[in-house]
Amino acid sequence: MIATIENFKVDLSKPIDISIPITNTDENPIAWYIEKPVIEPVKFGEWVGKVSSGMSSTNFNNIFFNPHGHGTHTECLGHITRELYSINQALKQFFFMAELVSVSLEKRGEDLVITKEAVEKALNGKTPEAIIIRTVPNEDSKKSRKYSHSNPPYLEEAAARFIRECGIQHLLIDLPSVDKEKDEGRLLAHKAFWNVTDVNQLNGDARLNATITEMIFVPDTITDASYLLNLQIASFENDASPSKPVLYAIV
């Protein structure tokens, strides 16, 4: 199916899913010092909610997971504020013009960072509604990596501020966080992107409707270009939700 949107066309029959699914296997990526997700049937005494058990006509599972640590997730500024803000209230539109850029990491002491200069060069003057950052080198192990205590790469504060100043509302990245793993709670990139100066009382120009999506994976077969992004979330009244960003090539 070909759809025409604002004078360009996209082929809706060829979605490009850049999410990492949540599983209860050792292949599931993990961040923030937690264990892998748990997906298991409900049990009432001897009864097991699993068709193969012979006791149930349906599969009836409980799922225990953390959106920030177990896969692709989208978060709003409620992730860092004293007051509660929900991703389900922050994200009310779901289709955006997005730019996919591949960005090489720069060594800073013992850290690997995404610099403002690298992001600015990759965007080359474009100001899309959403930016999708694929870090280089891009390895399949991102889909199952155990990030805890590994000091993963991160986005420097100036790069996050530049993205905000470009008017970009939605930031998607293939890392467990835009910030350094152990930064003593400073969260400089989160704050710069959402324009939050005080987590206890929001300034009037804080970006309530801007989102950050972390732990995506974009295969090398997908070229850097402009795409139509469908950013799908589950309806959780929480600072973050597991999400399913899907790209559509412009034809």
From TrEMBL:
Pfam family, one: Cyclase
Protein name (database record): Cyclase family protein
